[in-house]
């Protein structure tokens, strides 16, 4: 797998032909559907905050998770990765869907999910079969693929460690969409192998007690911050007034 991934980092993957229509992209991918919006600007701000962190510490592989399902971690992962690809077109940037239970990266981008990380880790295909370039960007994407019977066992395997080692060598920035933290052990297992972990929290929905439990479950992982998702512009008077100008 190592030699294959090393070769993968040296070429720009093929465009996924199923993602040629902008209508196929989830409207919440605002970095594409509404790049001038306040929401898109917040994703760019998040990216540049990570860039400032990178000045202080190595942070090539960044993962995103949430306490519970439905908090918007996948939409945040996609927007963040696209913001990175647009900010630094010279860098090799990869988005990996490691939520093998309910992978949503491909549907969010309007891409096919026939083969992905699950098949790669099972040894059923080559990385060139699963990594693809999203439409008119330089962003490389590896979807989740089919749901395996034992997702936790697959993500805890030696093959997954080899995969992460390989993408570190083959890409400049890697963003990993993890499963939610509390329902499964997957995020805790992979979180320790990441350079940084972001916790996505749904505003006015996720109780602080639940967030604290998720943080405790990730103990030992490099948790670098939280992303408040779904907050209304009205909640920030300065931003509301600024956007109106």
UniProtKB/TrEMBL annotation:
<feature type="domain" description="AAA">
    <location>
        <begin position="59"/>
        <end position="204"/>
    </location>
</feature>
<protein>
    <submittedName>
        <fullName>Polysaccharide biosynthesis tyrosine autokinase</fullName>
        <ecNumber>2.7.10.2</ecNumber>
    </submittedName>
</protein>
<dbReference type="InterPro" id="IPR050445">
    <property type="entry name" value="Bact_polysacc_biosynth/exp"/>
</dbReference>
<keyword id="KW-0067">ATP-binding</keyword>
<keyword id="KW-0829">Tyrosine-protein kinase</keyword>
<keyword id="KW-0418">Kinase</keyword>
<dbReference type="GO" id="GO:0005524">
    <property type="term" value="F:ATP binding"/>
</dbReference>
<dbReference type="GO" id="GO:0004715">
    <property type="term" value="F:non-membrane spanning protein tyrosine kinase activity"/>
</dbReference>
<dbReference type="InterPro" id="IPR005702">
    <property type="entry name" value="Wzc-like_C"/>
</dbReference>
<dbReference type="InterPro" id="IPR025669">
    <property type="entry name" value="AAA_dom"/>
</dbReference>
<dbReference type="Pfam" id="PF13614">
    <property type="entry name" value="AAA_31"/>
</dbReference>
<dbReference type="InterPro" id="IPR027417">
    <property type="entry name" value="P-loop_NTPase"/>
</dbReference>
<keyword id="KW-0547">Nucleotide-binding</keyword>
<keyword id="KW-0808">Transferase</keyword>
């Amino acid at each position: 797998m190592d030699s294959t991934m090393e070769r993968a980092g040296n070429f720009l993957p093929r465009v996924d032909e199923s993602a040629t229509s902008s209508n196929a992209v989830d409207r919440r991918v605002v970095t594409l559907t509404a790049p001038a919006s306040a929401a898109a600007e917040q994703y760019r701000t998040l990216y540049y905050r990570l860039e400032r962190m990178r000045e202080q510490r190595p942070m090539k592989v960044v993962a995103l998770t949430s306490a519970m399902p439905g908090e918007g971690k996948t939409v945040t992962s996609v927007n963040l990765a696209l913001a990175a690809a647009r900010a630094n077109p010279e860098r090799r940037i990869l988005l990996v869907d490691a939520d093998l239970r309910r992978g949503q990266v491909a549907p969010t981008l309007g891409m096919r999910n026939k083969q992905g990380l699950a098949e790669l880790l099972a040894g059923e295909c080559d990385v060139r079969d699963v990594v693809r370039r999203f439409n008119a960007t330089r962003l490389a994407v590896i979807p989740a693929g089919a749901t395996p019977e034992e997702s936790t066992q697959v993500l805890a395997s030696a093959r997954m460690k080899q995969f992460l080692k390989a993408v570190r060598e083959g890409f400049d920035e890697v963003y990993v969409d993890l499963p939610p933290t509390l329902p499964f052990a997957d995020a805790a297992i992979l979180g320790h192998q990441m350079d940084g972990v972001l916790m996505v929290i749904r505003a006015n929905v996720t109780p602080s007690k639940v967030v604290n439990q998720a943080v405790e479950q990730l103990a030992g992982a490099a948790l670098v911050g939280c992303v408040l998702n779904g907050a209304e512009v009205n909640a920030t008077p300065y931003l509301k007034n600024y956007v109106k100008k």
